[in-house]
Amino acid sequence: MHRAKQSLRAAELLCENGLYSDSLSRSYYSILHSARAALLTQGVRVTSHEAVKRLFGMHLVKPGLLSADLAVSIRKEQDDRFLADYDVTFDPGPEQTGERVREAREFLLSIEDFLRNKETSGKSMHQA
To answer: Which domains does the chain have, with CATH numbers?
Structure first.
């Protein structure tokens, strides 16, 4: 989660300083790293961006462990990151970028809660 937090912090700073395309990219990477951490709890290691999106839904959303809204956030953030990094005509503004940064923060907090609950339930199972 360290990389997710660093990426989120970078996204916030970039957004505050008007570097919106770069902020969108960092917001997405915060989500990507958070999603990978959650997938690791299910024994799933992923390397590709598409695999993260697909396997997050399969292993975490479909069984009801996490909200489907988080899977939607991955898709939106990935789409915007692609535009920000590769489309020279894409010009995001402060509203769109601020919304993506907020989504990334909420995603990270949701994953931290999930990891904390998983850790707590794992400890109580071992103590039983």
So the answer is: 2-127 (1.20.120.330)
Gap between the Cα atoms of 13 and 18, Å rounded: 9
Rounded to whole angstroms, how far apart are CA atoms 2 and 79? 24
pLDDT tens-digit profile of 78-105?
999 999 999 999 999 999 999 999 999 9
Distances (CA, A) of 123 to 1, 23, 31, 44, 60: 20, 37, 27, 21, 20
CB 48 within 8 A of CB 22: no
pTM: 0.89
Q: Are 33 and 1 in contact (CB under 8 A)?
A: yes
- Residues contacting 56, CB < 8 A, separation 6+: 35, 38, 39, 66, 70, 71, 74
Alpha-carbon separation of residue 23 from 19, 94, 112 (angstroms): 6, 10, 21
CA 45 to chain centre: 15
